Amino acid sequence: MLAAAWHITQRAGNPWDFQTFYYAATAAARGLDPYRLDALSAAAGREVTLPFLYPPATLALFVPFTLLPIKTAAWVWLGIKLGLVAVLVAVWRRVFLREVSILALIAAGFFGFNAAILLDLTTGNVSVLEQLLLWLAFSHYVQDRRWPFALLVVIASVFKLFPIFFLGLVLVPSQRHRPSPRLALTGLALFGAIALLPSALGVGWARDFLSNLPGQPPYGEGSPSALGIFQMWLDSGRPSAGGAGSLPLVLWGIYGASLMVLSRQLFRRAWTMRDPLQWVVIGTLLFALLSPRMMLYSYVLLIAPALLLVHRLIPRGRLQVVALVLLVVQGAARCLLPRVYLPAVANLPFFAGLIVVNMPFLLALGLWLGFMRAGGRILSR
What we know:
By secondary structure, the protein is mostly helical. Helix content is 66%, strand content 0%. It has one domain. The protein is built from 20 helices and no strands. α6 (102-123) runs parallel beside α17 (318-336).
């Protein structure tokens, strides 16, 4: 924890994502378009280069911070998020990870998946808030409380949209429930009303939200994913090359279809077992493995499933320790030894670098393959 605290204090002075949120809320309060960089720059009194990408409704969260100077607001936001991290870890511990040692939970929580939580804290992103809402939703789901689960998933999805994928879990039967298509449709309607209706109605600047969404998903260390691997490989690591055209998307589609076909036995067994915990693990891993835009801080989603699978897949002993080390070593090196880690990665041969910068995705894929090989039985209680 001391190492994590040291890293936060060293890096928290420039939370670029929060600055964008702050200036977007400031611009909206002044009647300017928060989806235009020139409006954000006018609100900031300097050039702002990161656009605001979230739906109009999310600005309500950041407007109160504009009552404070930007530096004070950033520290208040960091303090709030540290509290949210504590609640998130408590939810993981109480509901999902009772068998996992607190030391492993703290180490993986702060440094797992290339220190995803620490990146979120130092950039001022909303991923910790999003993940807390999702894991509160999953805690209801494993207790077969579907309405609170659906509501929390809808709220969590308002920022980055893609997590609405988890609403599909209500279509899976459990011991108490049949598939719930009406609940899924109700959740989708509520999600659309909150996230998209202002833009669809053409309400002033709100219409710019959809046109402001990124068309080219980022890739590399900041966004490890299957699609990113194909793009990085075909562009030889040069995002500006653009020579690959639509081929990365084709390869990503083939990969996704192959993964689903190869996993069909796991899906069938989970369907018949009707264990909600199985589906939480399946859903979270599939989300990361199939997402076209999985930013590094979104890998907070996989910390609890990874610890659960390591604990259940690997007998206690040296192999389990090795697995935990693999989970945290890159994040620890990246945060605590940046002057060694960053030059070392930059000087790697291309394909070695491709593996290293996409290690969070490859770890997720390895966990999925191990889970698939075990047939999902390891999570049975």
